[in-house]
Amino acid sequence: MKISLGPLQYFWKKSEVLDFYRAAAGWPVDVFYLGETVCSKRRELRLRDWLALAETLADQGREVVLSSLALIEAESDLATLAHLVDNKKFKVEANDLSAVQLCHEHQVPFIAGPTLNIYNHEALALLQRCGLTRLVLSVDQGAQQLEALQRQARLAAQPFPELEVLVWGRIPLAYSARCFTARAHNLAKDDCGLCCLEYPDGLLVETRESQPFLCINGIQVQSAACCDLGPELNELAKLEVDYLRITPQRQDTDLVVRRFAEALSTRTPPARHGDCNGYWHGGAGMAQINTLEL
């Protein structure tokens, strides 16, 4: 198994993004996913900046993938997407069917992002015919669903693509045309003032009992708890997972990466540091299920 650093979900200043990836270049990461996947108004880095960063990382021997938006809302988004697909060098993570269509039309192999929501082997086969080479499992799919998908593919004599699973980070739960962060500031989406910059790890939402519930990240809603599948490392290996995805966060991402890298090196699952793993075990996403109890 290899370690991948998923696309940055949050909105940081350009200098902070570049500093982060400059440091990350020294971490034991095999694959870097680069690009804006949440909101097209986040333009601290333009496509040319992401491409320049991709070139730098590729020159250091890293695999680089360019990630597309999960929600296409305007013609300008489609134009940017077309340039991303036509980059002629780096792989593309398609997070929307518009990206799948463009990749198919231009005969560009693609990685199916988690927001494509592939739940059965027929949908998987259809996208494989369109150029899918790697599947990033949807965040709400667990071990049982993955086993069922693999079994369906075997029965249909269908080759299974490379497989990637989110093992660390807040779970992206939903996307909306409405910007929740702007609403929290009583601002219109079209006049948001880029207030997401004030929340480099999202805006936490609590219940009336003051318990962490959700995390607002612009048009995206995430779990408040951080998913951690480190202790499930052996199970992930048995299910032939190829890539372990870690989502970048403002603090301690390097420690998370090194913890998983050491676990892979020693073949010893690490102790749990995150707060939830429910989806993987077929339970509520926010639940933390002790694997010793299963």
Keywords:
294 residues; alpha/beta; TIM Barrel; 8-stranded parallel barrel; 9 helices; 31% helix; 21% strand
Please explain how this structure is put together.
- This protein is of the alpha/beta class and about 290 residues long.
- The protein has one domain: TIM Barrel.
- The protein contains nine helices and eleven strands.
- It has helices at about 15-25, 45-60, 75-85, 95-105, 120-130, 145-155, 180-185, 235-240, 255-265; strands spanning about 1-5, 30-35, 65, 90-95, 110, 130-135, 160-175, 205, 210-215, 220-230, 245.
- An eight-stranded parallel barrel has the order 1-2-3-4-5-6-7-11, surrounded by four helices.
- Helix 6 (about 145-155) links the parallel strand 6 and strand 7 (about 160-175).
- It starts with a strand and ends in a 28-residue tail after the last helix.
- The model has no long low-confidence stretch (mean pLDDT about 95).
